[in-house]
Design a protein that fits this description.
Length: about 140
């Protein structure tokens, strides 16, 4: 776990419409070239559903690497989403922030890593624990 998490408020006050091709990009065989029309896409509107409760944070560490979440990836976190069983969540436990899958059990919770080198964290009423927010998007650098 890491006791630091740089949390950045989402700024939805600006608009930057970027070109969006009407054609989908084939991940198999390429389609014949066509004239590509352009639509507008504003990433703020696409990624931020609840501006007042949306934040960004950068991943630090490798505990979720088997889910393809790497050190340095950027998380979009919505605090207004009710946490649910299996959600990918930024959690605050005993003075530290961590990114894990949350599993709810009858008398405890589990924070599940996605890396065999890390053990699940058992959460009980003895812990100072809160699910700080639910991850809605992961932005990766190519």
């Amino acid at each position: 776990m890491s006791n630091t998490l740089d949390i950045i408020s989402a700024d939805d006050g600006s608009e930057l419409k970027l070109p969006l091709s009407e054609e989908r990009v084939a991940a198999g065989f390429p389609s014949p070239a066509e004239d590509y029309g352009t639509l507008g896409l504003d990433l703020n509107k696409e990624l931020i559903k609840n501006p007042a409760s949306t934040f960004y944070a950068r991943v630090s560490g490798l505990s979720m690497i088997d889910e393809g979440i790497n050190d340095g990836d950027l998380l979009v976190i919505d605090k207004s989403i009710e946490p649910y069983n299996g959600c990918l969540a930024v959690c605050y436990i005993d003075g530290e922030f961590t990114l894990k899958r949350f599993q709810k059990h009858h008398d405890h919770g589990l924070l599940m890593p996605a890396n065999k080198n890390f053990k699940p964290l058992r959460v009980t009423s003895d812990n100072d624990f809160v699910i700080w927010g639910v991850v809605t998007y992961i932005i990766k650098k190519a």
